[in-house]
Amino acid sequence: MLIDTHCHLDAAEFESDRDDVVDAALASGVACIVVPAVGAFNFATVAALAVRHRCVRYALGIHPLHVEQADDAELIALREAVGRSIDDPRLVGIGEIGLDHFVPGLDRTKQERFFVEQLRIARDFDLPVIMHVRRAQDSVLKHLRRLRPRSGIAHAFNGSIQQASTFIDLGIVLGFGGAMTFTRALQIRRLAAAFPSNAYVLETDAPDIAPSWIDHQRNAPQQMPAIAQVFAGLRRESIEAVRAATGANAIRVLPRLASTPPAAGSQTATDTPIPPAR
User: Fold this and answer.
1) What is the CATH number of the domain that holds 126?
2) Is pLDDT of 167 > 50?
3) What are the b/e assignments for 32-57, b being 16+ CB within 10 Å?
4) Within-domain flag for 263
5) Residue 153: which of 136, 133, 135 has the closest Cα?
6) What's the total number of domains in the chain?
7) pTM, whole model, 2 decimals?
8) Closest to 20 (Cα-Cα) out of 273, 257, 218, 214
């Protein structure tokens, strides 16, 4: 099954046609869309999307690029929000959290402090993590070795083979999406074929990281089937095998994906609960 493990469906780019975007994803064969928060200001928004659409799940966290504007009260708000939502089967993890060493001028010390505190929240509530790991693989790994969340995803992974192997050994799978569809992305394309099939999940990061065929346009979850096809080609596997493996991996590392949400949320005719992993 196709699961978009990382999509910012709450973004302003979807304001005019968000329901249509979900319907198009479902029609394309996407079974589930995971929407991570980026700060306390959108905790309620991502949770509401999961109530509105039964195919949507959400994560709560503070993105490293939002940390610059955040204060410690936001960490308290996160812990309280997770505590209030822990019995909601739509909540699948803590995210989007992590480190960004690509954007110049950011306070790395503050980023690390927020990342560590959010790893502690994940550990305290026994939830997986969805991580932003941009040019910060070794720093992220340092904290993962110490705090050991139950599982998680290294979103938009673009590190070395050795770094990837260490993430996998720690129970973290690698997220792959539009970036690998560009023929110039040689390292990412090598990584896509380097590990056993249980090491990967697929994602869009919509509306960002559009695949090559819609470069510089708005990305959307309906691109997942074509992204999966590229991934299958890089691995020389059938599309059926890729759909089955990446879907099972997503449910393994985000186990709450297997839960059926309450019936209160709206649901289109093609929207069905996600079957449990086999």
Assistant:
1) 3.20.20.140
2) yes
3) bbbbbbbbbebbeebbebbbebbbbb
4) no
5) 133
6) 1
7) 0.95
8) 218
